[in-house]
Structures are given as structure tokens and as C-alpha cells.
Design brief:
CATH class of the largest domain: Mainly Alpha
Structural class: mainly alpha
Radius of gyration: 27 Å
Strand content: 5-15%
CATH architecture of the largest domain: Orthogonal Bundle
Shape: globular
Helix content: 40-55%
Number of domains: 3
Number of strands: 4
Order of helices and strands: HHHHEEHHHHHHHHEHHE
């Protein structure tokens, strides 16, 4: 085998990325060469070795300096929204480690979250501050929707903050066939702030607040009572909610140290927030949004993209409610 490698220059070829066809051609050449000089009983062994050698050559150019192969180490502790969470307990450390590994290798979603973050954090962080919500809670929105404003879960939760219809109505968001304010970025964020403040008043710590955002305030309150605990980190919970709190911590760590996860998305490569050209206030019906868009110097597609809460091609507005429509 060493003679074959020297003859074909395989060791030198390891500095290149082999395409599928290149690997096939070299493997075929090795087979012909081996069949010529080796007994038939050794031919199949050499065939397998040849294919493995060429495949390895195709992969090795991506060394440790290029591929990120290891997740960040679990820190000794973290501070989240003013609360300190320590990872000196084996179960906490293992649960955190799982989420760090997940974010390290979930490349498509993780990259998109980074790229979208500039646009939505610039819009929403001031709202969080206005309502007295710690900035760290912006990461809850990130794990809820991957910062996709069009997100719709299989359970029917919608928007960046993933409100269900029932919770949206509870916090004053309109949900109808023509208007769904769960997709109104400003209004859904205000509703999320109200939910978070209510939950903090009830539970007193942000990790339990986070768990209640996933599992509902009533459900978490019952489990705290039944299990005689005051913090959701100490509860036996369904898998999704149990992971949810540590996903939130891992998301904060990811945004603060993306390079530790193997990601490098400079700020100038993150999608910017482009403010609307103007805002039009309406208190009556709009029979045709295509006409409305043209009247204000834009297209129907761009109008809908800037106002995802408009769910139809018209706005009947029988109740003469006042809406603000962004004009891009």
C-alpha cells in the first residue's frame, strides 16, 4: 500500500479537496494498478484501502484550524438578568453542556440568528428597557422564533415572541382573518413585556419566568407548589421546558462569544434595520392594499413585508379601529 501511495502521490493530494469525481477517477486508477501487480486474493483488500485513503485525502484539508470540532466549555457560573446561575452541580453542568453542543453544530439556524439579530435587537431592546425588562430577555425571543418574524409553530404560536391565540388575546393583541398583531413587532414586544412583568411578580426570579413562558404560568405555579420548590431550575419538568432554561443561558453565551462556538459573523454582515420611509395612520377601511401601496409609492409585496400583521389584501375595519401602517 505504501508503494501505491508513493506512486500516486496520495500524500501530496491530501492538501486538496477532492470532488466526488476526482475520488472516483483515482480510486479506479488504483484498482487497475493493483489488479496488474497483485494476486487476485489481495485485490479486494487493496480496493477497500484505496477508497478509504482517497476519501481521507478529501477530508483532511479541513483541519482543526478550519472546522470547529469542539463546543465551548461550560463556565463556572453565569449571570442572567442579574441572577447568578452556577454550574458546579453535575446535573446543571450536563444540561448546559448539551445546549452548548447543540448551538455549536446547528449551523444553519445559528448563523441566521446571528445575521438577523442586528435588525430586531435594534428595534426591540429599547422597548424592553422602557418596560423595565432586563436586556437579557431578548434572548428568549431568539430561542422562541430563531428571530424569524414570520415564524408559526405547529401549535399555532406566531411571531417573534410566539404567542398563542389565547395568550395574545389575554394581552390585548388582535387576532383575526385580516389582522394578526402577533406579527406586529412593536405590539407583540409590548405584550411580551407585560407577560414577563406579570410572571416576575408571581415567581420572583427570571429562570422561573422563562420556564413559565414555555409551559405557562399556571402550569409552572402548580409544579412549584406540588414539588415544594421556589425556582423552576429545581423542578422535574417535561423535557422541552427543562431544556428551555438552559437553551436561554446558552443563547446568551452564544451571542456574547460567538467565536467560542466557531462562528464569525461581523456586524457589517448582519442584516440592518431599515426604518420605514413614513407611517400612515388609518381609522377606516382599505378596500385594496395594492391600490393603497401604489398610492404611497411602494409595492404590495414591500408593504406586506413591512406590515406582516396585515393578513389579507384588504382591511375591512368595521370597528373603525386606528392602525399604523409602515411605508417602506
Amino acid at each position: 500500500m505504501a508503494k501505491i501511495e508513493r506512486f500516486c502521490g496520495i500524500s501530496k493530494c491530501k492538501t486538496f479537496l477532492f470532488s466526488f469525481y476526482a475520488r472516483a477517477e483515482i480510486t479506479g486508477f488504483l484498482c487497475i494498478f493493483a489488479k496488474t501487480i497483485l494476486p487476485m486474493k489481495h485485490f479486494l483488500s487493496v480496493l477497500c484501502l484505496a477508497f478509504l485513503a482517497v476519501s481521507a485525502a478529501a477530508q483532511e484539508p479541513y483541519g482543526a484550524e478550519i472546522l470547529h470540532k469542539q463546543a465551548p466549555v461550560v463556565p463556572v457560573y453565569m449571570v442572567f438578568a442579574g441572577d447568578t446561575i452556577r454550574f458546579d452541580r453535575p446535573d446543571y453542568k450536563e444540561r448546559m453542556d448539551r445546549e452548548l453542543i447543540s448551538y455549536t453544530y446547528m449551523h444553519t439556524n445559528t448563523t441566521l440568528i446571528l445575521k438577523r439579530s442586528r435588525r430586531y435587537f435594534e428595534q426591540l431592546v429599547p422597548i424592553l428597557k422602557k418596560y423595565g425588562i432586563p436586556e437579557d430577555l431578548k434572548y428568549l425571543m431568539a430561542i422562541e422564533s430563531n428571530l424569524d418574524p414570520k415564524a408559526l409553530s405547529s401549535a399555532g404560536a406566531a411571531g417573534l415572541w410566539q404567542f398563542t391565540r389565547a395568550t395574545a388575546s389575554q394581552y390585548g393583541l388582535e387576532v383575526s382573518t385580516e389582522v394578526d398583531e402577533r406579527y406586529n413587532i412593536e405590539k407583540e414586544t409590548v405584550a411580551a413585556c407585560q407577560f414577563l412583568k406579570d410572571a416576575l411578580d408571581r415567581f420572583g426570579n427570571w429562570m422561573t419566568v422563562a420556564a413559565s413562558y414555555n409551559a405557562g404560568q399556571a402550569g409552572i405555579r402548580k409544579r412549584l407548589t406540588d414539588q415544594r420548590q421556589t425556582n423552576a431550575l429545581e423542578l422535574w419538568l417535561p423535557e422541552e421546558t427543562s431544556r428551555y432554561m438552559f437553551r436561554l443561558l446558552a443563547m446568551k453565551m452564544f451571542f456574547e462569544h460567538p467565536a467560542a462556538f466557531g462562528f464569525d459573523v461581523p456586524m457589517d454582515e448582519r442584516y440592518p434595520y431599515v426604518a420605514p420611509r413614513k407611517t400612515v395612520t388609518v381609522s377606516g377601511p382599505i378596500e385594496n392594499l395594492v391600490d393603497f401601496a401604489e398610492k404611497h409609492g411602494t409595492t404590495y409585496a414591500r408593504l406586506k413585508g413591512a406590515n406582516l400583521w396585515l393578513r389579507s389584501d384588504k382591511l375591512t375595519n368595521k370597528s373603525k379601529k386606528t392602525y399604523e401602517i409602515l411605508i417602506p
